[in-house]
């Protein structure tokens, strides 16, 4: 149930480009979320890409830590907060979650903000 498979990751360059050019976005500090409705039906309601600025975090270990914490919080809460709402409405989305914070916080903060972010996202998508 709490998995994060390859099919759930957004890797296609054309789709990522479409997401950043045509997508809607909102801020839920320390995350910036961009999303767009997917054209083709997918096996999962949402495909997601996580990114961290190289300008703010010079060392790769720091960027990887932030991405790891973000992915873990997403993985644990996506089903109840996002997937259930999207599946009932037959909606598929492409999603980008960018960390824009200035320093690395503890995991508890990541989890709290991710829950808030997913609630806000599902509300926006279902509008």
Describe this structure in words.
The protein has 127 residues and is of the alpha+beta class. It has one domain (9-125): Ribosomal Protein S5, domain 2 (2-Layer Sandwich). Helices cover 46% and strands 20% of the residues. It contains 3 helices and 4 strands. The protein has helices at 13-22, 60-89, 107-125, and strands at residues 24-28, 31-37, 46-52, 93-99. Helix 2 links the parallel strand 3 (46-52) and strand 4 (93-99). Helix 2 packs parallel to helix 3. The chain is globular.
CATH topology: Ribosomal Protein S5, domain 2
| Strand ordering within the main sheet | 1-2-4-3
Protein structure class? alpha+beta
Give the radius of gyration: 14 Å
- Major sheet, described briefly? 4 strands, mixed
Work out the count of structural domains: 1
Total helices: the number is 3
**Which CATH-level-2 architecture?**
2-Layer Sandwich
Strand-residue fraction? 15-25%
Number of E strands: 4
What helical percentage do the residues reach? 40-55%
CATH class: Alpha Beta
What is the chain-wise order of helices and strands? HEEEHEH
Distance between the termini: 27 Å
Low-confidence stretches: none
Calculate the mean pLDDT score and round it.
95
Shape: globular
């Amino acid at each position: 149930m709490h998995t994060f498979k390859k099919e759930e990751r957004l890797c296609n360059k054309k789709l990522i480009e479409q997401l950043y050019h045509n997508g809607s976005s909102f801020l839920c500090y320390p995350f910036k979320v961009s999303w767009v409705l997917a054209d083709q039906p997918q096996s999962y309601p949402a495909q997601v890409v996580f990114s961290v600025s190289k300008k703010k975090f010079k060392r790769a270990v720091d960027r990887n830590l932030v991405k790891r914490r973000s992915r873990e919080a997403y993985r644990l809460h996506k089903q109840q907060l996002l997937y259930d709402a999207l599946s009932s409405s037959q909606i598929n989305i492409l999603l980008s979650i960018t960390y824009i914070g200035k320093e690395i916080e503890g995991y508890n903060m990541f989890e709290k903000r991710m829950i808030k972010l997913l609630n806000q996202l599902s509300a926006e998508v279902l509008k």
